[in-house]
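Ticket #4471: structure output looks truncated?

Reporter: J.K.
Steps to reproduce: submitted the chain below (423 residues) through the standard prediction queue, then opened the result file.
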Amino acid sequence: MSRKLDWISIIIYLILVAMGWINIYSATYSGDGGSIFDLDTLYGKQMLFIGVSLALAVILVSIEAKFYERFAGVIYLMSILSLLGLFVFGKNVNGATSWYAIGGMTLQPSEFAKAATALALAKYLSDIQTNITDTKDLLKAIGIMILPALLIIPQPDPGSALVYASLFFVLHREGVSPLYLYLGFFGVVLFALTLIYGPVWIILGMSTLLGFLYYFMNRKKKRLKLITLVTIVVVTGLMSFSVDFIFENIFEQRHRDRFSLWLRLEDDPTKLEEIRKTIGYNTYQSEAAIGSGGLHGKGFLEGTRTKGDFVPEQHTDYIFSTVGEEWGFIGSAAVVMLFSLLILRLIYLAERQKTSFSRMYGYGVASILFFHFAINIGMVIGLLPTIGIPLPFFSYGGSGLLGFTLLLFIFLKLDANRINEWL
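Returned output as attached by the reporter:
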């Protein structure tokens, strides 16, 4: 079996985990010269998590591949129950009830729910009775995707909930119209533009754009129905006018401040500076740390901003700022290339699967990893607002590392078994 495993993916995984630990060590090392296995330190605990994750990987590839397909529904149900249990037995950490306290450790079930949801979605879509082009079946598939997200949002943990949107790429790969992706992208852009310019200008701009489109298409004898264009303007208008209500009444103040900083909505320089020093402080310091690294970086354990604790919680969501400061542009580019290679490799493996279940799960794995990778790095360098998404295999945390290991090695087992599935 070991010869059938995709060792390219495994080697990239091991390199990323090792690089992650090195940067966690740098971000948390206090200079006391203690053992790397000291469980009183964060890097010592992460070393323990790595050992447990490697043991988990061995177990996952030792289990019969059919087990994951046969019990996908049971695994998903157990995951949903674990999320529901947080409302009764969950431990509150930093204002979020997202963990179970087990002895002196904590476990975050939302990290494991990603693999469970990807399995359940693949199982449902691969069912011979499922027709993804049928509206009823499509809605059921979407329901599988959003149910865990709906349970994660109230914790509150909107960042982790947003990850499940990445599974729409699986639906797209399996034949769902790209219109859904376009509409989702349009909704995000419309939301941002409305916050910047206001609904009136958005409606005027959309009306003008569609008016020109109607005129030029008619000149080319490609007639557009006027009612269709009017409907688009009306729907756009309704969505735009709902933005202010959502922004002011549903978003919390910290979310509004993050969007204000990201989109430069605040005109008052005093208020803007206050936001930068509070909600936007992490991003501001992270950008400064990465920028100070230059081309080659300052060297291992030589990052002045890292050693000075300028970036709060740098070992978790902002671990990439350590890479940028100490390893510079070259090190940052190497990390981006490794993640890109892993994701492209997983897509390649997904395409060579002999069963639709394995292919769909593979695309689910690639989609989730890409979403985490792109959003986290975009957040750390200031291109995207802070939403609290860890960098896979890099950020400190046992639940995250175990969850991503679970996600990846289930697929590697399915891929190793593809010849048997064909037979």
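Triage note (M.O.): checked the attachment and the full token line is present. The mean pLDDT is 84.
Status: closed, working as intended.
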